[in-house]
């Protein structure tokens, strides 16, 4: 009985992804080397390599050094065939910080730019102009990922510290204009994911990342059992909705004063500890300092038993981890994986 066509096509696609993954790992290799890495037969590898040469995903290199037999052809992974554009947006006090990076299929950062923009001058038109220039210079861009300091649901910005981006469906607007895949998410999801990836030495299996910028509200990101928690409506981490103040305006006012901020953050952290029980809490954002952290820890220790207290770390600037998180997500999308898939853990 012949194998169903659907099953055959699925198997071929799986073998193709396996071979591409091997090429991404080693950069270049012969049919024999790829067969050894993947466990596939040399003939199967040869057939798929021919298809990948036609599609441009591989290109031919020189002949490999001979060990006595017929020399083998080397095939090179074309990592620059498709690119992705990462954009991180951060608000702090009177300015927005914008970072852009283009990345290839192997996750190599090819270009990186940074801008400082007055708080109320960052409009969609300004952001769109930056993207248009990047796409013009690198037409190979197939995916765009943007981190937003606000709440994002299905690509729509429900609210944002950058008021000019409030209520815009950035995903739809950018996809319809540039005809590429667009992924928009809350900055805290990207920050937590990027921090998890870049600090493997800290064993961050269960941790919370809490961010308090200057003259803005706070937010959080959670990793539980090495998985980012995004929630049903991507609402996870919107801790500014915790019912400790009457309004967003009042929350910003209280965050500006040390005494009220210490009281607020202590309540927030106690809530986080009792709900997610993290081993580690990382505090970031330029509103924090060592003195505030110490006072917050002392206040929490008066409520919770010592055995339940997590380890606290202060790292005010995590812009590198933020961009790393976006880059990791869009690279996954570029190669057809789930956005927050993490193979390191």
Automatic annotation (TrEMBL):
It holds the Pfam family ROK. Keywords: Carbohydrate metabolism, Xylose metabolism. InterPro entries: ATPase_NBD, ROK, WH-like_DNA-bd_sf, WH_DNA-bd_sf. Transmembrane segments: none annotated. The keyword Zinc does not apply. The keyword Zinc does not apply. Coiled coil: none annotated. CDD domains: ASKHA_ATPase_ROK (cd23763). Belongs to the ROK (NagC/XylR) family. PANTHER family: BIFUNCTIONAL UDP-N-ACETYLGLUCOSAMINE 2-EPIMERASE_N-ACETYLMANNOSAMINE KINASE (PTHR18964:SF149), ROK (REPRESSOR, ORF, KINASE) FAMILY (PTHR18964). Transcriptional repressor of xylose-utilizing enzymes. This is ROK family protein. It comes from Ruminococcus turbiniformis. The lineage of its organism: Bacteria, Bacillati, Bacillota, Clostridia, Eubacteriales.
